[in-house]
Amino acid sequence: MWLGELITDRGIGNGMSILMFISIAAGFPGALWAIKESGKLAQGWIEFGVVILIGFVMVALVVFVEQAQRRIPVQYAKRMIGRRSYGGTSTYIPLKVNQAGVIPVIFASSLLYIPALVAQFSNSTAGWKTGSKPTSSRVTTPTTSPRTSS
Question: Does the structure show a pLDDT above 60 at 129?
């Protein structure tokens, strides 16, 4: 938080938002490559392409909702000064559809993290928690060959 406040004080932008973006952007290439490596169709390239496509659609939808506005029509009354009339124009008040900004996105990401948090605190061997298939309960130890000393 201290670094975020320093960034904001320097006038670069909203410091906490910049730090959150950097955190997400730093892990993005590794996560995409892991999706490609774990894919089964065409050596993972089809899954990789589908994830990229879904990402672009999500970005487009977020930008659409962020830029959306509701236009409330306003009509000004005419004024008569002498024999001349002034005013009487109509315009609109632009109200943003999403007035909360990035708060819903932060809240949604925290809700998506809850299942992983619950699995972390439980003794579950779920495959989605660790990214691997569940193993059997039997414990095996690796065999080592005896070393000969000279």
Answer: no
